[in-house]
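Re: the request from the purification team.
They wanted to know what the chain is likely to look like in 3D before they choose a buffer screen. I agreed to run a prediction and write the result into the notebook, where they can find it.
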Amino acid sequence: MSTDTQGNNNNVMPFVNSATPIETSAYAFLLAHRAEHLGSTDGLLRLRQRCAEHLMARHDVSVDRGLEHAARLLAELTHSGDAWIDIDASTSFNLVLRVGNQHNISFSADQLLDAVKNYYKLAI
């Protein structure tokens, strides 16, 4: 269940432009199985992996392509709307994160990699 900007619960699904059968299949899988993985970062990672496996089996896509579709659609499905990446202001090596209407956070790709490694405890 999601909440609107006033904090009211609603069952309105976020808009996703599912232009391909793979995206439609991924979105349907995520909606059907998201309750099984609520409440933890590990749960969302497992849901992403399961969705990718579903896409590999059903649509004969590579592991990388399955994970890419699953991650993108999972982000669309679970976003709060409070923060977003400003694509127009970002480059390949610098990302601009907009928080609300007043705050901009700019960081490099290297800083993002460090944060992700720390968050997920990765040894890349």
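For the purification team: Residues 8-12 have pLDDT under 50 and may be disordered.
Please add any questions underneath this entry.
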